[in-house]
Design a protein that fits this description.
alpha+beta; Pemi-like Protein 1, Chain: D; two-stranded antiparallel sheet; two-stranded antiparallel ribbon; 3 helices; 4 strands
Length: 74
């Protein structure tokens, strides 16, 4: 567990991510991280680097199999 101190950054609030946590999340300066609600509070996650590649592959498959997908959707 990490204890983070909240600070004012302009009109917003921010915190510094410890180097070890950044390493575990595999994030660097300029990367996006996501704060999502969970049943026990909030969760911080990093963007999945393979997501865009996967979606590009799905787009290609959808074009190649457009007719079959239309038939299945009926």
């Amino acid at each position: 567990m990490y204890k983070l101190k909240v600070r004012r950054v302009g009109n917003s609030l921010g915190f510094t991510l410890p180097a070890e946590a950044a390493h575990q999340l595999q994030v660097r300066e300029g990367d996006a991280i996501y704060l999502t609600e969970s049943p026990d509070g909030f969760r911080v996650t990093a963007n999945d680097p393979g997501f865009e590649e996967t979606m590009a592959a799905v787009d290609e498959i959808m074009v190649d199999y457009r007719n079959a997908l239309k038939k299945l959707a009926e």
